[in-house]
UniProtKB/TrEMBL annotation:
The family this protein is said to belong to: Belongs to the CpsC/CapA family.
GO MF term list: protein tyrosine kinase activity
Organism: Niallia nealsonii
Ranges of residues in domain Polysaccharide chain length determinant N-terminal: 3-94
Ranges annotated as spanning the membrane: 18-40, 175-195
Compartmental location: Cell membrane
InterPro entries for the chain: Bact_polysacc_biosynth/exp (IPR050445), GNVR (IPR032807), LPS_length_determ_N (IPR003856)
UniProt name for this protein: Capsular biosynthesis protein
Membrane topology value: Multi-pass membrane protein
Residue ranges constituting the Tyrosine-protein kinase G-rich domain according to the UniProt record: 142-194
Organism lineage: Bacteria, Bacillati, Bacillota, Bacilli, Bacillales
GO cellular component: plasma membrane
Amino acid sequence: MEETISLKELFQTLKKRIALIVSITLIAMIISGVVSYFLITPEYKSSTQILVNQAKDSESIYSQNEVQTNIQLINTYSVIIKSAAILNNVRNDLKLDMSVAELNNKISVESAQNSQIMTVSVADPDPALALEIANKTAEVFEKQIKKLMKVDNVNILPLADDQENQSPVSPNPPLNIVIAAVVGLIVGIGLAFLLEYLDNTVKTEQDIEKLLELPVLGAITTIDESKEAKLRGRQGTNRGDLVDSK
C-alpha cells in the first residue's frame, strides 16, 4: 500500500512541476543549439595513410614473422610521428604559426588491429590546411624514419585530394542538442523533487496527520461561491414559479 502511495505522490510531484521541468529542458536545448551553431568553431578532419611494409623482391615470399614485426613497429612509429623530431620539420616546411604542442594536439594516429596501415588524421578549422598538414607529416615521417630507424619499410598511400570539401566533424549540433535535452530533463526532475522536499507547507489532511501524528476529526470543504449563487438563483426561481401558480 505504501509503494502505491509513494508512486502516486511521485507522479503528482512531476505533474505539479511539469512547467519547471519543460522550461529547464527547453532552455538547455536552446543554449546547446546556440553554442553549437554560433559559438564553437567547426573543425574539419583530413587523413592520409601509411603502409608499413618491408620492400622485397618479386621472388621473395612474405613470412608471418615479418608481418607481425611490421605490425609491432606501428606502435613505435605512432609515437615517432608525433615527436618533435617530425613535427618541427612539418612546422618549418609549412611555416605554421603554432607551437609543436599545438600541432601535436591536432594530429592523431590510428591503426586497425593486425593491420600494417597507419592512418594519420589532422583536425583544423581550415580543411585545406588540415589536408596539407596530414600529407606533410606523412612525407616528413617517410624521410626521417630511414635515418632514425635505418629501415625502408614505409610507403605513403595516395588518397583523394578533395578532402577539404567534406563536412565538419565537430561540433555535432543535433547530438549536442539531444544530450542537452537529456541533461536538462534530469536536472529539471531533480530540481522538482528538491523543491517538493523543501516545501514544508501544509496543504492536505494527510499532511496534518504526518506532521502532528494525530487523526483528522473533520474538514471544512471549499465552498464554490459561483455554484452557491447559481443554486440560490434556482431556488428563488422555483419559489417565484410557485407563487405565480397560486
